[in-house]
């Protein structure tokens, strides 16, 4: 470590997060923590004294991105910022990172980032600064509280880790065993976010619907948060089919503030592949859950994750995945080519799939997903809906809001401000967003 070490104690920082929303949340918490230490945020990495790369290990491409970013952190005069690698690459590769990228000063895992200030001190003193512990005591208690927020929407991590051990996935190794944050801490953080101007909270966890505390299940937590004044919308992601309890499904019917959107990854439409993935559900049990949710909340928008080219995936297996997509009619989906991850069982399986076969399957799957996404958006044209205004649009006076079903709506909303909930008529729809016309302002 510490090749061409930048000597000074940093006063400015830049945090860049890769990968999932939980990383975005961790990145925000790290930024808030460095801010609480008296540092200020720099817009660009090269303008900062310390750059924190909050990394993702889920697929090989994500890892490659980090190393190319590290390589680019060099200024014209030959100097560079202090570099901290955080997140799942830090956890998975540890000291190996410094061998592959000698300019890295700090390596800090996702369960240890509350110790970043200490690690910065070590790096300044020229000491090894590596912390990939997974302490039993939660890091959350050691972080500063949430203050004023820049957006009306916020993430709140309530659960971390995974005990499911899907055979392709690194998460159980990088994020550790499933843990639920305490109910009281979550409610306190939600209140602080509302005080900081937030109206919509997205509850996060690798298996968010596995959250529980003694007698309280995930749906109980949602109901308690919905009772907090100031919260208008609640979302959650990512769920596992095995943890879709009847209580959670009922909450979709009974809790108005719980948005009608469900991201429920299935990964494949073929039972033999699901078995080889150790998914512990079948296509039939998955579809039965969707039927139950749709029965109580017919307008629910569905989303999923798919992996193509898992070892042993035949043409027939892949056709079964396409058939599932047709049957469900997802509002949106994420789809990926299988990426063998070191240390996972699937990486050593026979019958790995050729890259060109994966490319072809991914293209066909994405075409099917896009067709459904367009149809889902088109079906909104002519309807009115409420949207939460989240950010400025590209054109003057334009604001972008979200429908309850997660679609972005561009609207000219004179007199309205970011953070307002307004009613719009949807006038047109594209694959990725809708255009709306202001109906009237809702009383806040
Ligand atoms: N290769 C490709 N995709 C993966 N995912 C997880 N591990 C892998 C892998 N090794 C996908 C799954 C998961 C999403 C977050 O990433 O679809 O739901
Ligand atoms: Fe990975 Fe499976 Fe756990 Fe999701 S449920 S984080 S895919 S092991």
Number of helix segments?
A: 13
Residue ranges: pLDDT <50 for 5 or more in a row? none
Radius of gyration: 22 Å
Chain-averaged pLDDT: 94
Total separate domains: 3
Q: CA-to-CA gap between the ends?
A: 53 Å
DSSP E strands, number: 21
Spatially, the strands of the biggest sheet line up as: 2-1-3-4-5-6
Bound molecules: 5'-deoxyadenosine, iron/sulfur cluster
What is the structure about, briefly put?
This protein is α/β, with parallel strands linked by helices.
What descriptors fit this protein?
binds 5'-deoxyadenosine; 21 strands; OB fold (Dihydrolipoamide Acetyltransferase, E2P); 3 domains; five-stranded mixed beta barrel; 444 residues; pyruvate-formate lyase- activating enzyme; alpha/beta; binds iron/sulfur cluster
Characterization of this structure:
Helix 12 links the parallel strand 15 and strand 16 (332-337). The protein folds into three domains: 12-131, 3-Layer(aba) Sandwich (Rossmann fold); 151-378, pyruvate-formate lyase- activating enzyme, CATH 3.80.30; 384-441, Beta Barrel (OB fold (Dihydrolipoamide Acetyltransferase, E2P)). By secondary structure, it is of the alpha/beta class. The chain contains 13 helices and 21 strands. It has helices spanning 21-36, 60-72, 87-93, 96-100, 116-124, 171-174, 183-195, 218-226, 246-254, 271-276, 283-296, 315-328, 355-378; strands at 12-17, 40-41, 50-55, 82-86, 106-108, 129-131, 153-157, 159-160, 179-180, 200-204, 212-213, 216-217, 233-237, 261-263, 301-308, 332-337, 384-392, 398-402, 408-412, 421-429, 433-441. The strands form six sheets. Strands 2-1-3-4-5-6 form a six-stranded parallel beta sheet, sandwiched between helices. Helices cover 32% and strands 23% of the residues. The termini are far apart. Iron/sulfur cluster binds next to helix 6.
């Amino acid at each position: 470590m510490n090749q061409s070490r930048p000597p000074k104690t940093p006063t400015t920082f830049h945090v860049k997060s890769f990968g999932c929303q939980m990383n975005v949340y961790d990145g925000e918490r790290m930024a808030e923590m460095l801010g609480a230490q008296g540092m200020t945020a720099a817009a660009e990495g090269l303008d900062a004294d310390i750059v924190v790369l909050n990394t993702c290990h889920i697929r090989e491409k994500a890892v490659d991105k980090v190393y190319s970013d590290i390589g680019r952190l060099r200024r014209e005069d030959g100097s560079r910022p202090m570099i901290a690698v955080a997140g799942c690459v830090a956890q998975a590769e540890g000291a190996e990172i410094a061998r592959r990228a000698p300019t890295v000063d700090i390596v800090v895992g996702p369960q240890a980032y509350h110790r970043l200030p200490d690690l910065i001190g070590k790096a300044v003193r020229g000491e090894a600064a590596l912390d990939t512990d997974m302490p039993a005591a939660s890091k959350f208690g050691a972080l500063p509280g949430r203050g004023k927020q820049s957006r009306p929407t916020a993430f709140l991590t309530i659960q971390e880790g995974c005990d499911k051990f899907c055979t392709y996935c690194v998460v159980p190794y990088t994020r550790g065993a499933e843990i639920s944050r305490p109910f009281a801490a979550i409610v306190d953080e939600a209140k602080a976010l509302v005080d900081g101007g937030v109206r919509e909270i997205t509850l996060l966890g690798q298996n968010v619907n596995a959250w529980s505390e003694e007698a309280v299940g995930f749906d109980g937590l949602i109901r308690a948060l919905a009772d907090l004044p100031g919260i208008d919308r609640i979302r959650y992601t990512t769920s596992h089919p095995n943890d879709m309890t009847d209580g959670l499904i009922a909450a979709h019917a009974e809790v108005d503030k719980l948005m009608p959107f469900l991201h429920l990854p299935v990964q494949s439409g073929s039972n033999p592949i699901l078995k080889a993935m150790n998914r512990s559900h079948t296509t039939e049990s998955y579809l039965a859950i969707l039927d139950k949710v749709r029965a109580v909340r017919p307008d629910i928008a569905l989303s999923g994750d798919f992996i193509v080219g898992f070892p042993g995936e035949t043409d027939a297996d892949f056709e079964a995945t396409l058939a599932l997509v047709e049957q469900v009619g997802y509002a949106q989906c994420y789809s990926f080519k299988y990426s063998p991850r070191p240390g996972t069982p699937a990486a050593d399986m026979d019958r790995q799939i050729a890259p060109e076969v994966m490319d072809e399957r991914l293209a066909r799957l994405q075409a099917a997903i896009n067709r459904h996404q367009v149809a889902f958006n088109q079906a909104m044209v002519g309807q009115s809906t409420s949207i939460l205004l989240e950010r400025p649009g590209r054109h003057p006076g334009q604001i972008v809001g979200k429908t309850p079903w997660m679609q972005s709506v561009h609207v000219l909303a004179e007199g309205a401000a970011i953070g307002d909930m307004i009613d719009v008529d949807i006038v047109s729809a594209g694959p990725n967003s809708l255009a709306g016309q202001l109906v009237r302002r809702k009383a806040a």
